[in-house]
Amino acid sequence: MRSKTRGRRLAMYAFMTLLAALFVFPMVFMVAGAFKPDVLVLAEGNTWRAFWPTEASFDNFSGAFRRGEFGQLFLNSTIISTSVVALGLVVNSLMGYALARLPFPGSWLLLLSVIALTIIPLEAVAIPLLWMMSEVGLRNTYTVQILPFIANPLFVYLFYTFFLGIPRELEEAARVDGAGPLTTFVRVTAPLAKPAYATVGILSFLFIWGQLLWPVLVTSGPDVRPLPLGISVFVTQPPISWGQIMAFAFMMTIPLLIIFIVFQRWFVQSVASSGVKG
Amino acid sequence: MPNADPTVRPVATSSTDASGLDQTKSGWKKRRQRFSGLAFVLPGVLLLLLFLAGPFLTAIGLSFTSERLASPLPTRFVGLDNYIATLGSETFRQALGNNIWFTIIVVPVQTAFALGLAMLVNQRLRGVRVYRAIYFSPVVMVMTVAATVWLLMYSPDRGLLNGFLSLVSFGTLQSDWLQSETMALPSIMIMSIWQGVGFQMIIILAGLQEISEDLYEAAAIDGATPWQRFVSITIPQLRNTLLFVATVTMILSFRLFDQVWVMTRGAPLGNTNTMMLEMVNVGFEQQQIARGSAIAVVFFLIVLTLTIIQRRFIKEEVN
Prior knowledge:
The complex is a heterodimer.
Chain A: H1 2-35, H2 38-43, H3 59-66, H4 70-101, H5 107-117, H6 122-135, H7 143-146, H8 153-164, H9 168-176, H10 181-192, H11 194-210, H12 213-218, H13 227-234, H14 242-262, H15 264-273
Chain B: H1 20-62, H2 81-88, H3 90-121, H4 128-140, H5 143-153, H6 160-168, H7 184-210, H8 213-221, H9 226-237, H10 239-254, H11 258-263, H12 275-285, H13 289-313
Helix pairs in contact in B: 1-13, 2-13, 3-4, 3-7, 3-10, 4-7, 10-13, 12-13
């Protein structure tokens, strides 16, 4: 009996490990390819050696910087993503807080509008927004890649529901001491809402770091081009160097990988909370 | 401090029925609070109007005109011409067809796969968190990176996948993957499922963990088999979560863009063209803003329909 359950458990582990291999092998392939000479990435591409960094060196990384302008693109993506996340956290949490705690005439209507707006995906407004932005001459800037993504109705709603759940009494104590709404929010409520900030911050970084459609429409050179568009250009830029492409891909993954490893609990929670039923 | 929110339980405090001095003070506070509320929402409201609601209405408006990107030609009202041209276009219909095929295959497969993975990592086993992290890890790669790596793996003569196929089949099985007219779209489906299933798994896992243990224990006492427990407890309890996941995956299927942009740009012969690729081609590459807007409106109507259907099917949770 005992050995039977043990056998089943071993079989379960074997099965789960097999599945894990299915998920991991492209990444191992990418990392191995990033370290080995170009010729070998292709020559060994269809053998088991594809997973091994034969004749390892850092040549591909310097190549990705030199030919793929990885440095500039990484800087662009970092500026765009951190601006969107930081400004977004402020704007969306202030709005969510006001809807939950500081009602004014018509605020219920605003709440309904925010919920309705969550249905509109970026793709549905990309083309007219492109037209508007080119009318005001904003194409090919950082601004045009930051401004449209700061306010997000889903994030406003996530903050709103979170703030509703914070006990009122905690804020009232501060109010009695004569603190105004802004002071109360900054000193009392926002610090209590750290989980909401982590959740929204991670979700919005994941989204903006990988964003491709909008940069395709509004950027035309490497000066302000972000990484996802950068890699799609690099893949087609002759002479095609798969070693350098893999190094580019690997380096582009590192920031999210670090966030994922360090904040794994929050990361998982933020994904789960994107599934809250509206 | 009086409670200024009429919708939430009113808290009786001493200041509401106190002296006149207190009354003016609280009235002033109330006004100040309303003013703060307005000030707090102002940046968000402006940005949402400017970059979401505004462009959305503009899309509808533009779709009835002849507007082009940076063109000196005067803009004319053309009625439904853009919609007629869009729906009548062979390319658009092929692209829409591809999206529909993608949805029909990917939604059930990915949802079922995600459910399976979620149940695996929901077991009480040592090290199960590591497996959860691994199954989720392709999400961290972001789509453009995943598509780039798979592009090389799909290479017919140098690719990992053909290398593996020929190894296990002793050289008999091969595919041209992305370059084959029949396999191109399925290839995109496979890599999309691989990249996205971890995200769905996490959402379903959260749903699984909300199911009460008591239900399973009661069923076990009644002698229910694991399969019976799955069908009569897990599935009904997960109903709303699964509906949500399926709807999100459906909407994602119609938003299909990143993978095809990196891997095929719609080739071969439009077999991997999608609505979003078509929208970028027409509205941006060909600078026909008006027709691009018409595609955007058609796309939105599809998303709206799917969302409404989902809302109708979701049951209110019974306590």
